[in-house]
Every structure is written in C-alpha cells, then in structure tokens.
Specification:
The protein is an alpha/beta fold and 153 residues long. The protein has one domain: Vaccinia Virus protein VP39 (Rossmann fold). The protein is built from 4 helices and 8 strands. The chain is globular and about 40 Å long.
C-alpha cells in the first residue's frame, strides 16, 4: 500500500501521518526508507502508544511526534515552509467532517509538492470527496470494511 508498487519510492521521502493512532503507517514508512515522518495525534494515550511502538522497534530518529490537533498543525507547518512527499489521513471513521476539512486544508496549502500523494483511509461505504481544494482523487482501493482514496494536486 505504501509503495504503490515501487519500494524505491519511499527512499528518502518525507511523510505526515495525520491522526496517527498507533503510528503503524509512519513506522512502516520509516522501516521502508523514509527519511522523516511527522506523526500528528491529539489523543494523549495514542501519543504514548506511538512513542512505545517506536521505542520497542528500536527506532531512535527520523521522526517527530506532535501531540496536537491536525487543524492547528497544518497552518504552522505552512508558515515553516514544510513540504511532504506523502500525507496519510486517517481520522476516526465517524468524524466524516475531519476528512473533508483536512483534505480541503491540504488542497489549498503549500505543503504539497506537485508529486505528493495524499492517502485517506476511510470506511468503505463513506466517500470523503472526489475533489478538495487543489486535490483530486485518482484512485480508490477497497480492502474489507475499509477503503483508501488516493489524491494528487
């Protein structure tokens, strides 16, 4: 899923794992050669779990964990001129507005390069959006009860 068929695509890449939960997606990106992963998670127990998971796997660098709301972090990153190669968006499934709001913020931001891939994981029966700001979905992949929507500028 992360490599889109090309394992070398992750080498040296920069990730944002938004609504990171356990941190599994960002940790997998690091294990496959990502240079940097920014984990964003507002729930304190989940932040502690990400820290514990990284520690248990012996991962000591190449990441930052931000215990904050995604809507507050994105504008801050923009003011710092951050750029990402991949952005993974996975809010709690029942918070459907979070998908639309986050994708719209990303689509209007300067955080994405022309080649950046934004992946939203969501419930299979929920369709986040076809377009958001400057983002347009180019692929939807269903896996069991979940689906992944892939976006680019």
């Amino acid at each position: 899923m992360l490599t889109a068929g090309n394992p070398a695509a992750l080498a040296g890449s920069v990730w944002a794992d938004l609504y990171a939960g356990t941190g599994a997606v960002g940790i997998e990106a690091l294990s496959r050669g990502a240079a940097r992963v920014w984990f964003v998670e507002s729930a304190r127990p989940a932040v502690r779990l990400i820290e514990e998971n990284l520690r248990s796997l012996g991962i000591k660098g190449g990441f930052a964990i931000m215990a904050a709301e995604v809507g507050k972090v994105l504008p801050r990153w923009e003011s710092e001129d951050a750029k990402f190669d991949y952005v993974f968006v996975d809010p709690p499934y029942l918070r459907e507005e979070e998908y639309r709001d986050t994708l719209a913020l990303l689509g209007q931001s300067r955080l994405l390069k022309p080649t950046t891939v934004v992946v939203a994981e969501h419930a299979k029966q929920f369709d986040p959006v076809e377009e958001a700001g400057g983002l347009r979905r180019y692929r939807r992949l269903k896996q069991g009860d979940a689906a992944l929507s892939f976006y680019r500028k």
